[in-house]
Amino acid sequence: MALTQDEIQNLNRQFKGIPPEEIISWAIKHGKKSVVTTNFRPYEVAILHAVTEVNKDIPVIWCDTGYNTPQTYKHAEELIARLGLNIKLYVPKQTTAHRDAVMGIPQIDDPRHELFTEQVKLEPFRRAMDEHKPDVWFTNLRKGQTALRDSLDVLSMSKDGVLKVSPFYHWSDVQLDAYLKEHGLPNEHKYFDPTKVLANRECGLHT
């Protein structure tokens, strides 16, 4: 979707306080091909529910690092079945067992950490986006998560020219808890991202 920065800023002013479903409907209507990405981390169910309420057939790209907790995998299977998600699964080209044997999970200051992140997250994500070629990308980015995300908004443009749409950008955990309760949706907090040492660190997808 071709939008100038001025147009994005104007739309962001309009979208502040607008219900997520209205933002989602606008983006799907004006875009050519939409996808939603997920890693089934805490509160991801909100964006998955909201988007599929508008378009139940939207591709849901799941880049599984292979290091999720058992709780996350069970949560994912529950949501896939319950919401009827059109899951498009992408995994690293190397098995977790292979990588554990030759590399393990490098610490952030280990020179191999960059290669590790490339293998388990960045390459599968690029492969997914190359195959689907969306112009609209729904995410559950929210203000207050990281310094970078604080500089974004409901609408932002990715470095590859894809319009990122984050309908819950201005929502707090308390508001999301209320949304989940209203719709009877489960949440899961036992989540592990092997590419991050700190919770407020970017993994590379949004930089």
From TrEMBL:
Protein name: Phosphoadenosine phosphosulfate reductase
GO cellular component, as recorded: cytoplasm
Pathways per UniProt: Sulfur metabolism; hydrogen sulfide biosynthesis; sulfite from sulfate
Source organism: Flagellimonas taeanensis
Superkingdom of origin: Bacteria
Annotated Phosphoadenosine phosphosulphate reductase domain residues: 35-187
Matches recorded under Pfam families: PAPS_reduct (PF01507)
GO biological process: sulfate assimilation, phosphoadenylyl sulfate reduction by phosphoadenylyl-sulfate reductase (thioredoxin)
GO molecular function, one term: phosphoadenylyl-sulfate reductase (thioredoxin) activity
Family membership noted in the UniProt record: Belongs to the PAPS reductase family. CysH subfamily.
Gene3D superfamilies the UniProt entry points to: HUPs
